[in-house]
Amino acid sequence: MVGTKTPFSAERAPCGKVVAGEYYRDGDEHGLRIRDSFFECGCRVIRHEFHDGSCHERAVRHDGRVVKDQYGPDHGC
Questions:
Q1: What angle do CA 41, 22, 20 make, to 5 degrees?
Q2: Distance, CA of 39 to CA of 43 (rounded, Å)
Q3: N or C: which end of the chain has fewer CB within 10 A?
Q4: How many CA atoms lie within 13 A of 15 on its CB side?
């Protein structure tokens, strides 16, 4: 697995600000997918889809407050 980083210019962060940042994407041929977003303000959104179809999505503001922490079966995030 070799991940890729792609910049973006303006997107709404979990804190509500519209800022630039970077996407990180990774995965394997067996179904694992990692799709993370890192914002210049310090916020982040992390989404991991696992081989069994379950997923975990978490959004964290730049001050450390978790605004979303959801586990879901069958890609139910």
A1: 45
A2: 5
A3: N
A4: 16
Question: DSSP strand E in 1-77: where?
Answer: 4-12, 18-27, 33-39, 44-49, 55-60, 66-72
Containing 21, the helix (H) or strand (E) segment is: strand 18-27
Q: Give the model confidence (pLDDT) of 23-59 as tens digits.
A: 999 988 888 899 999 999 999 999 999 888 888 999 9
36, β-bridge pairs: 24, 46
- The predicted model gives 62-73 an average pLDDT of 85
The residue length of the chain stands at 77
